[in-house]
Specification:
The protein has helices at 42-53, 57-68, 96-103, 114-132, 146-152, 158-175, 247-254, 328-345, 357-360, 374-385; strands at 85-86, 91-92, 177-180, 186-190, 217-218, 224-226, 237-242, 265-267, 274-276, 282-284, 312-317, 354-356, 400-403, 414-418, 423-425, 436-440, 448-454, 458-465, 476-481, 487-493, 503-510, 513-520, 528-531, 533-536. By secondary structure, it is of the alpha+beta class. It folds into 3 domains: 42-190, Orthogonal Bundle (Lysozyme), CATH 1.10.530; 217-385, Lysozyme-like (3-Layer(aba) Sandwich), CATH 3.40.80.10; 400-536, Sandwich (Jelly Rolls), CATH 2.60.120. The strands form 7 sheets. The protein has a 6-stranded mixed β-sheet, sandwiched between helices. A 5-stranded antiparallel β-sheet has the order 14-17-22-19-20, with no helix packed on it. The longest helix is centred in the N-terminal third of the chain and has 19 residues, at 114-132. It is globular and about 75 Å long.
């Protein structure tokens, strides 16, 4: 199934890590249990803030897309000494009080209200413009805002500021971008500005290829030490992290001696670039936890008490643990990298050897967050490496699973058919297979139909799988039909709950031939119905 961009806004926040002081007056609550909420129609908000403040709406949109891809993130502190980010525009917690005061909004609203967050960001840009430009007479010129954009990024060196301006914000402005929610509604749209050039002095370096992975660029960090000798230092796991910020800032911070932290790799949001900062033969400082095998399915318990840095490779991903979805390009680039690491070091490609930071350091970290697509990610690593998980012994051929992606189905006995407009997505984690279909509720007979073939009449129990989120229908109707099209039963399910598991619909008497489970979306508008997979047993 092709990935359909569907960035969601999370209204809530991850708590500040216990070892990192929360900056400002914002109190953030929430965590792994957060349910994504769709935030659409941001264009009007950006236009209104632009008119009110004089900061071009398209500039605000570009920064918002670069920082969070238009999601109301709630950053936590991945790196000590680096303030976490808040909301759609990733306003720094260290400047949140000042930004709110300048914008005339309540500081708490920065984490909850997209418009307040955008207004705070506009206020910071205006403050920067008064200091570094553009002058008031030039503020209608998008290119003239580049010095203020560089200031907004809060980066640590000239090269990082240049990358943020030229390769991030102004690249988006030049190319344009549109994001669409699962419901089919536009989240935001930015028109392209071909040939736009930032009024900023370019500072850059041509980097060599990565020392261990040929697709990476080598941007060395001083923050490393030697691995222990022998088996104690043998690389045997890969740890997945999130930067809690954008790519340029993440790379810059981890190359800063004062940071006292690093990772072996950082993967850009769109997967277009991956930086290698530390050789895999060296120990990067990416996880502040001693290993405890009880946190990892009792795997490799002989390492208990050893620093997890000793035997792991760390991969940071630009983005946030609280974001609701992960770009396909980034996941693909990361999966290629992880495949390469596991191949060279002989690491098993499973969830006990490819692990999350929060899994091994749960007391103050949660990355890569609840919506990292673990099942899909491991599948991609295996597929790229040409390996698969061995099938269980003696599979039950009487069980039929009909996936939302016909490429995953046995065409002789399982398929899906769609009527009307459905959106292909893998935005909310926990889907079956490679993604799912999302359809907006409407007064029309435009269902998704799962078909399965039975050589003879049989009584079968039907289970359904979906991804749960707060925008889902609370009364999705599943209709069972026999091969002649006669309804033989139906079930109504609440898709805001019970996600990422098999949920029993009922037991029905089916006939020989192609039987159906029809997923209806004939309801009042405003919700989303999910067609992911069904199981016949």
């Amino acid at each position: 199934m092709r990935h359909q961009s569907a960035w969601l806004a999370v209204l809530g926040a991850l708590a500040c890590a216990p070892t990192v002081a929360c900056t400002g007056d914002i109190v953030l609550e929430g965590g792994e249990g957060l349910t994504p909420t769709v935030a659409t129609g941001l264009d009007g908000i950006y236009e209104r803030v632009g008119r009110d403040t004089g900061v071009p709406a398209d500039l605000l949109k570009a920064i918002g897309y670069v920082e969070t891809r238009w999601q109301m993130i709630a950053g936590e502190s991945e790196f000590e000494g680096r303030a976490h980010a808040i909301g759609l525009m990733a306003v720094g917690a260290d400047v949140a009080d000042r930004a709110a005061g300048l914008a005339g909004v309540d500081v708490q609203d920065l984490a909850e209200d997209p418009e307040s967050n955008i207004r705070a960001a506009a206020a910071l840009l205006l403050e920067a413009a008064d200091r570094v430009g553009p002058a008031k007479a030039d503020r209608g010129d998008l290119g003239a805002w580049a010095p203020a954009v560089a200031e907004y990024g809060r980066l640590h060196d000239d090269e990082a500021r240049t990358s943020y301006v030229f390769h991030d914000v102004y690249r988006v402005l030049e190319d344009g971008v549109t994001e669409v929610a699962e419901s089919g509604e536009v989240i935001a749209s930015l028109a392209a500005h071909p040939g736009l050039e930032p009024d900023y002095d370019y500072t850059g370096t041509v980097y060599a290829a990565g020392t261990d992975w040929s697709e990476a660029v080598w941007k060395p960090s001083p923050n490393y030490s030697s691995r222990p000798s022998g088996t104690a230092g043998k690389v045997s796991m890969v740890i997945i992290h999130t930067c809690e910020g954008g790519y340029s800032g993440c790379v810059s911070w981890l190359r800063n001696t004062a940071a006292g932290a690093s990772a072996h790799y950082v993967v850009k949001e769109n997967g277009a670039e991956t930086s290698q900062l530390i050789r895999e033969s060296q120990k990067a400082w990416h996880i502040a936890a001693t290993y405890k095998c009880n946190l990892n399915s009792n795997t490799d318990c002989a390492r208990n008490g050893s620093s997890s840095n000793n035997f792991t490779v760390g991969i940071e991903h630009a983005g946030y643990g609280s974001q609701a979805s992960w770009p396909t390009g980034q996941i693909e680039a990361s999966a290629r990298l992880t495949c390469d690491i596991t191949r060279r070091h002989g690491i098993a490609r499973d969830r006990q050897h490819i692990v999350g930071h929060g899994q091994l350091q749960p007391y103050n970290r949660s990355d890569p967050g609840p919506n990292w697509p673990w099942s899909h990610y491991i599948d991609r690593v295996r597929a790229i490496c040409g390996s698969t998980t061995p099938p269980p012994p003696g599979p039950d051929t009487s069980v039929i699973i009909v996936d939302s992606n016909n490429a995953n189905n046995d065409a002789t006995r399982a398929k899906i058919e769609l009527t009307g407009t459905w959106t292909s997505s893998n935005s909310v984690a926990g889907y079956y297979g490679s993604g799912y279909w999302a359809g907006a509720t409407k007064a029309a007979s435009e269902p998704a139909t799962f078909l399965f073939y039975l050589p003879s009449a049989a009584t079968k129990t039907i289970d359904a799988w979906w991804t749960a989120a707060s925008d889902r229908s609370t009364a999705t109707v599943f209709i069972a039909q026999n091969a002649s099209g006669t309804e033989i039963g139906r079930a109504t399910k609440n898709q805001t709950t019970s996600g990422s598991q098999w949920v029993t619909l009922g037991t029905y008497n089916f006939s020989a031939g192609w039987n159906k489970i029809v997923v209806s979306r004939w309801q009042a508008a405003g919700k989303v119905v999910i067609a992911d997979a069904i199981r016949v047993r």
